[in-house]
Amino acid sequence: MAHCDAFRDALSKLLFDADEYAFSCFSNGEDLLLSGSETGYHLAFLEIHLSGAMNGLETAGQLRCLHPDTDIIFLTEAAEYVTEGYRYHAFDFLIKPVSMARLQDVIGRYLEERMKRPADFLNVSVSRSQVQLPLNEIRYLESQKRKIIAHMGRDDTGFYGRLDQLEDLLKDSGFIRCHQSYLVNSRHIRRFAGTLIRLSDGTVLPVSRTYMKKIKERSGKDRIGKEEEAL
């Protein structure tokens, strides 16, 4: 764990003037996933080659399902993994050995981007009461006539509103219009093939031709082909 301690010391120097923070180090992906099972982490540095049953890429896939809002920076000695790693919407890739200047650049950009991110909640009115819906927990928003259903896994929430207005409100929060009736959280997109997308909870939503180009651009998928896994 000596390399982990050295990396943590380097991060501590860079974050000296930042807000309060805490580090946790794990030697395998399984321990990381178990540790963050309730609250998750803001940022995870993942080695591609990990001890244990899962490598860094497989761990990232599980982490994306459990905590879509966790940012990921991969660490590797082999540049050929970079393209594959971006499938998991990685913030960046660090090729080892990592210089202090390179780490400072990545951490600086990460903190700057995080500060610019919009609010973490959608404020809605439910039964004349104001309710805050965590954006990272919303898989997708569905329009049903004059009502909007926020699909959040265990607890779906209905409120009155217009999908057009929500699309404009949430465009900088990672939500993409895929259909006249659906606004999807791009962090929950797991598969994109043909005219369908699969989300992290297994839900399959249609993609209309009107929004096909936007989905391709915003979800980070460059190709739609028959080679994609069947939905």
Short summary:
The chain is α+β, with helices and mostly antiparallel strands and 231 residues long.
How would you characterize the overall build of this protein?
This protein is 29% helix and 27% strand. It is of the alpha+beta class and 231 residues long. A 5-stranded antiparallel sheet has the order 8-7-6-10-9. A 3-stranded parallel sheet has the order 1-2-3, sandwiched between helices. The chain has a 3-stranded antiparallel sheet with strand order 11-12-13, with no helix packed on it. A hairpin with a 5-residue loop joins β7 and β8 (157-160). The chain is globular, with a radius of gyration of 19 Å. It starts with a helix and ends in a 13-residue tail after the last helix. Residues 221-230 have low confidence and may be disordered.
- Rg result: 19 Å
Distance, first to last CA: 41 Å
Quick one: how many beta strands?
13
Q: What characterizes the major β-sheet?
A: 5 strands, antiparallel
Shape: globular
| % residues in beta strands | 25-35%
Helix content: 25-40%
The number of helices is: 7
- Global mean pLDDT: 84
What sequence of helices (H) and strands (E) makes up the elements?
HHEHEHEHEEEEEHEEEEEH
Structural class: alpha+beta
Task: Name the poorly predicted regions.
Answer: 221-230
- Biggest β-sheet: strands ordered side by side in the sheet: 8-7-6-10-9
